[in-house]
Write a structure and sequence with these properties.
Order of helices and strands: EHEHHEHEHHEEEEHHHHHHHHH
Number of strands: 8
Structural class: alpha/beta
CATH superfamily of the largest domain: Dehydroquinate synthase-like - alpha domain
Strand content: 5-15%
Number of domains: 2
Shape: globular
Radius of gyration: 20 Å
CATH architecture of the largest domain: Up-down Bundle
CATH class of the largest domain: Mainly Alpha
Strand order of the largest sheet: 1-8-5-4-2-3
């Protein structure tokens, strides 16, 4: 196991009716701005719960944060925050709203352009405190420092890191009205978050392996329950907590990480507008096949412990594990081939060109270069 330093500062408030606890977490005298997406929180009752909890307090609202939040939108929110002297933020919605609010919080007291902050972490200065009320399990943004921001002008999508929310409220009942498609994307995103931290080198940490495998098994067992009944509180609670635990640092202690699937997927979203979770379902099986020799021991372990695969040679067992992974994504209703979404060779060529120009290398071995990216993407079309 590698050396590590770990601290997670987010207070997690989980369960039915917990939105009512907002007044206990936000300072009474705060100049508060609440950020939202497209309005689903008004349809599912979350907005009413929030306003009731904050009755008697003054706050301003910013609406319209889109999936894969655009820096162009966030500049407007930042300007509003500066004009109004905002000193506390509350993100109400899914991971995109939380991600966006991290950049807003990092920019209100910063003269730098927010896109420059995304590109250059050295420009980070004082970040305003923030909390979240999460309604879409997926990103883990409620309990980590990361965020992913898009730029329409450049056709790019990048991650940046600031600091954790002070608190996050997770009420599984807020997920009952989610569309099937969003649930599928969220489950896939969570699954791949875990795989990015787990599917690397065998033998690093038995404890981290078992923890990661437990999250994967929970998702596999829970997905059909949710498909049968989205109002199954316990199933939604398990899924919601799995999404948080999948990317809050707990399963990454002392182990190497990959993240190539996410980095390639971000390019597909930026260029083609494909939902983030859907890009992961396409990329991961192909990446595992291309990198099979390097990941062989871990693939065999994964196949045995997660899918119960015990027969065949090591190479065959690895192939079976990859196939079962793709089948799981299919069971969620997701595509696993670029051709299913009419993505052509021009997009592949542009992604490869971008990785070539940047000189980017990915993966736990820092050996997934532009040539490997091309191989992965072409296999995604097969």
């Amino acid at each position: 196991m590698k050396n590590f330093t770990f601290q997670n500062t987010t207070k997690l408030i989980f369960g039915r009716g917990t939105i009512a606890k907002l007044p206990q977490e936000i300072p009474a005298g705060a100049k508060l701005m609440v950020t939202f997406g497209g309005g689903s929180v008004k349809k599912n009752g979350v907005y009413d719960q929030m306003t009731q909890a904050l009755a008697g307090r003054e706050f301003i609202e910013f609406w319209g944060i889109e999936p894969n939040p655009r820096v162009e939108t966030l500049r407007r929110a930042i300007n509003l925050g500066k004009e109004q002297g905002v000193d506390y933020l509350l993100a109400v919605g899914g991971g995109s709203v939380a991600d966006a609010t991290k950049l807003i919080a990092s920019s209100i007291r910063n003269a730098a352009d927010p896109w420059d902050i995304v590109l250059n972490g050295n420009l980070l200065g004082e970040m305003l405190p923030m909390g979240t009320v999460m309604t879409l399990p997926a990103t883990g943004s409620e309990m980590n420092s990361g965020a992913v921001i898009s730029n329409d002008a450049t056709g790019e999508k990048f991650a940046f890191y600031s600091q954790n929310p002070q608190f996050s409220i997770l009420d599984p009942e807020t997920t009952f009205s989610l569309p099937d498609e969003q649930i599928a994307y969220g489950i896939c995103d969570t699954f791949v978050h875990v795989m990015e931290q787990y599917m690397t080198t065998a033998g690093q940490s038995p404890l981290m392996d078992r923890w990661a495998e437990g999250v994967l098994l929970t998702l596999i067992e829970t997905a059909p329950k949710i498909h049968a009944n989205k109002h199954d509180y316990n199933a939604m609670a398990d899924y919601m907590l799995a999404a948080t635990m999948g990317l809050n640092g707990f399963i990454a202690l002392g182990v190497s990480q990959d993240w190539a699937t996410h980095m390639i997927g971000h390019e597909l979203t930026a260029l083609e507008g494909i939902s983030h979770g859907q890009t992961l379902a396409i990329i991961l099986p192909a990446l595992l096949q291309v990198m099979k020799a390097q990941k062989l021991d871990k693939l065999v372990q994964y196949g045995e412990r997660v899918w119960g695969i015990v027969d065949g040679t090591k190479a065959e067992r690895a192939d079976f594990a990859i196939a079962r992974t793709e089948e799981f994504f299919r069971s969620l209703g997701l595509a696993t081939r670029l051709c299913e979404l009419n993505v052509g060779s021009e997009t592949i060529d542009e992604i490869v060109h971008r990785f070539t120009t940047r000189g980017t290398v990915l993966g736990e071995g820092r050996n997934i270069d532009a040539k490997k990216v091309a191989e992965i993407l072409r296999l995604c079309r097969a």
